[in-house]
Write a structure and sequence with these properties.
2 domains; 7-stranded mixed beta sheet; homodimer; alpha/beta
């Protein structure tokens, strides 16, 4: 059958002219992988790139499906963790592909979370000047966020995602049954991007999240799939209007200004990305109220929803100069303004140019000047 | 003045939708660089990437022009030679750019031949997921060939240009006065791609090359600029119709099937690329006659023109198995056919599927079987 036994299937079209593709979400989609890859790429060989824990659990089913569709398929494991997203791994993958005889009739399939998707996507964007690429996200975050937008990239020692390319996948298959093995904290963090999509774009989705938070956290497919599909649809709509991130796509950064600062300050060892985004969203909602952009009560409702999903909502009390430093992307341009995303209510947003100092002024700060002095010294060493 | 004092200026538009750009050819264009970069990119900082010999000769003029247009400009030197086109250099450039504070308002300017253009273009394609890129080719080959098509790339130990991206420049400025320092052999080799453009596409250009071969080799600007502009126009026309190299763009491979085999067989230490292309073109023209595609006399006329430009026309007598191995790109698919480009006369071409063995059968071969045995052993060590 056409859907390969998939259950509760939803399909979202990402409209990008001749680079358009479908994001499919549902249960049992892993079994449909081979058929979709053949239909969307016409490839004869597939390379399944994954990390060991995901590969052990879902690799055999993915490979079986690819081979059943007539593809020669091989699994390539990369180490787990964000440190993997670097040029060394990219180069190792090039060599592994060439050693295995990969050519322009090959397709790369990323099976895993955002790290695997970003890394594999970048290799697909640049190997032989671009080969087709299919994403099989196995985390909530990757299903709703990394699977739309075509952003691929790796980290340099100077920072995250400093190298990359825009390379659209040919297809995205999100099998929600793979989410069952996701630890509770990862699960909660994934919902942060769903909440974000609702907050900036869709009041009805926000209501739906409020009505069914617990069922969604339990991954009940009939509730979950339509909600994820709507979040993907929102991102796809925004990205289709603005593929290269100049205008409306900026709204997707809601909550991310502070989130990135917190992540940089903690060297990515504290909060998960989704957790930092929740903190950033609640902070941004409070600023939206204070600046008169959003009605009173907006931040409180957002905060309550985040808390029901088990997400943190208060910013860590770092030294102000540490926040300032992390907020100013280019340290030589400390006074240049950031396009900060504010809510106009739940379901609508816009950008507002703010100086880093205006943002930092509203953040919690350390109490004593001695502690601040120490904070500065530490932040310098870490800068 | 708008043309910054440029002489005998010709402008060719490369039509690629919103990625369209102009290739300008003429004398004194280096002085117009800064103005063009600002007009085409709106950048505030420029990074001039070059190799030491070219940088010493033309770097100061290029930097002066960039700075006079209000840009903060800095020169970055990479080592000379094709071995430079590797991932190590790419990574070094990323770090140098970040150390110098490069951001999305930065433009990369490639000053030099094809190696500098390919390397700089790939860095521009991938740094911060893509920054603008301007090409200032200083060789004939780069002016007519590398400046159109958007191909960027680097080599891996397994082969040339195995990694890359399609990234169109914002502008190409070919200052023909920089050609004066080109050694005679490089100059001749550059004309091979001009002859190729004429042979596959434009009988009138072929006539023009026959009429003025000597004046062109002397780089007389009034003759040279229109001829180069026409060659660029032909490539631009072909590429505009077929940006991603599926159909008509294949014709640009005329002479290249054998050229690549010769280059691979000699490990790129024998003939220059343009010389190998001349050999490949004459061979392909002879095959075109033998296969009944082109009228008798086609190959002779092409051979005579190549010789007037000082280009070789006879293939080296390698062992047949060595040629076969080099012709079969994927050694596991020795019997798969190559889309070989044949002439239908001077000024028109098409592709014809041929097996590597059909091509190799017409090549000169070593005489004794002992020599052939040795050739095989050598070719294996080199494969």
């Amino acid at each position: 059958m056409a859907d390969g036994g998939a259950r509760t299937l939803r399909r979202v079209r990402v409209e990008l002219g001749e680079r358009s593709y479908d994001v499919e979400l549902g249960g049992g989609l892993l079994e449909a992988l081979g058929e979709r890859v053949v239909a969307q790429t016409g490839a004869s060989r597939a390379w399944l790139v994954t990390v060991p824990p995901v590969g052990r659990r879902y690799g055999p089913r993915a490979l079986r499906s690819l081979k059943a569709a007539g593809l020669r398929a091989k699994r390539l494991d990369v180490p787990d963790g964000d440190a993997t997203k670097n040029l060394r791994q990219v180069e190792k993958l090039y060599h592994a592909l060439l050693e295995g005889g990969a050519d322009r009739q090959s397709v790369l399939v990323a099976l895993g979370g955002g790290v695997v998707g970003d890394l594999t996507g970048f290799v697909a964007a640049t190997f032989l000047r671009g080969v087709p690429f299919v994403q099989v996200p196995t985390t909530l975050l990757a299903m709703v966020d990394a699977s739309v937008g075509g952003k691929t990239g790796v980290n340099l020692k100077e920072g995250k995602n400093l190298v990359g390319a825009f390379h659209q996948p040919r297809a995205v298959l999100g099998d929600v049954e793979t989410l069952a093995s996701l630890p509770p904290r990862q699960r909660a963090a994934g919902f942060a991007e769903v909440i974000k999509a609702a907050a900036i774009w869709d009041a009805a989705l926000f209501d739906e999240l409020e009505r069914h938070a617990e069922a969604l956290l339990e991954l009940e497919a009939e509730r979950l799939v339509p909600v994820l599909a709507r979040a993907v649809e929102i991102k796809a709509e925004v990205v289709s209007r603005d593929e290269r991130e100049q205008g409306v796509r900026m709204l997707l950064n809601f909550g991310h200004t502070l989130a990135h600062a917190i992540e940089a300050r903690s060297r990515y060892r504290g909060l998960l990305h989704g957790e930092a985004v929740a903190v950033g969203m609640v902070f941004a909602a409070r600023r939206s109220e204070a600046l008169g952009c959003a009605p009173v009560g907006t931040a409180e409702r957002l905060e309550a929803l985040c808390q029901r999903f088990g997400l943190p909502t208060e910013a860590p009390a770092y030294d102000r100069s540490a926040y300032l430093e992390a907020l100013a992307v280019d340290k030589k341009q400390k006074d240049s303004r950031i396009r900060f995303v504010v809510l106009e209510g739940l379901g609508a947003a816009r950008t507002l140019p703010l100086a880093p100092s205006e943002i930092a002024a509203a953040l919690p700060r350390k109490a004593s000047s001695r502690a601040r002095g120490r904070g500065r010294a530490v932040s310098r060493r870490q800068g």
